[in-house]
């Protein structure tokens, strides 16, 4: 027994969703259509709404010229392998590559590996998210979903799937709140400096007054500290592996002004700083690149605890990276405009500066005065 609901494609041939009752009494829904090459295609579904959704997807992809069928696609596992071997991924930072590889090996391939990309529906993705959230966490599910989205986008670029279901359906992970940026208060920064040992204090003070990223601080050499010119040149950054590379973007190359206080502190530190071949400003005890984890675990966390800047679980109330945000706030407080802040922070675009620090440029009193002026001009009062 069958019932049909159809539409006519541009070629004039009909595609349809048909209800089929099997001898067992089970109901199935058959999507039947003709692909752009003139081949008749069909697929069965347990639920009519899934069949309707698939038919809508087919219609849209036929119109866009992006339709990919099951015999033209690959499995999720094969798409993962191709993505991890791509040039774009191989040039990533080792720590980022390791994170993606772990997402694929531990989470994506075991759960979705044998599924064809063309069968990766909204429902399957949400089932994957629910499983991952239950076994790991919502935060991990969000990170893995982002990796899966990149893999599907890569496969889409290769012509192996017609759409990215995660983007098209705006799939999100509920309850996966990211660490919220927290701007340290001035008194908190002062408490952190007061609780730090003299050597660590110089590191923190430099971060607060320059806005350098942790990797940039780790790669900073004495040749880049230009006392006579009163600037710190930022040209390099350190990887987690300890190797040094150029900054993330061309905008990352910048000169940061130094005040008299920071110059004094750095000159005093230079006299007792461990020396090494690279002449680093903040090296480890052997004069080599300090690891990011050591800065966090051996310097930042102990100092935050000593300053009483921890929550009930003993975790710091803000991150080391938030010292960079504090620097930006101090720059803005001194009247520096958005373009200058972009330059000092090494942002690739002014949009990134506004997205990150736009709220700090707000002046409520000035805005209120402007609103009064607009009303006065419109209404002819005042």
Describe this entry's structure for a reader.
It is built from 16 helices and 9 strands. The protein is of the alpha+beta class and 382 residues long. The chain folds into 3 domains: 2-67, no CATH class; 72-168, Orthogonal Bundle (DNA polymerase, domain 1); 186-361, hpI Integrase, Chain A, CATH 1.10.443. The protein has a 4-stranded antiparallel sheet, covered by helices on one side. Strands 5-6-9 form a 3-stranded antiparallel sheet. Strands 7-8 form a two-stranded antiparallel ribbon.
Features:
single chain, alpha+beta, 3-stranded antiparallel beta sheet, 16 helices
* Overall pLDDT metric: 89
Topology as H/E string? Answer: EEEEHHHHHHHHHHEEEEEHHHHHH
Q: Structural class from helices and strands?
A: alpha+beta
End-to-end distance = 80 Å
CATH topology of the largest domain: hpI Integrase, Chain A
CATH architecture of the largest domain: Orthogonal Bundle
CATH superfamily of the largest domain: Intergrase catalytic core
Give the neighbour order of strands across the main sheet: 1-2-3-4
**Helix fraction bin:** 40-55%
What sort of overall outline do the alpha carbons produce when their principal axes are compared? elongated
How much of the sequence lies in strands comes to: 5-15%
Number of DSSP strands? 9
What is the domain total for the residues? 3
Poorly predicted spans: 4-12
Biggest sheet record: 4 strands, antiparallel
Pfam families: Phage_int_SAM_3, Phage_integrase
Family: Belongs to the 'phage' integrase family.
Protein name: Site-specific integrase
Keywords: DNA integration, DNA recombination, DNA-binding
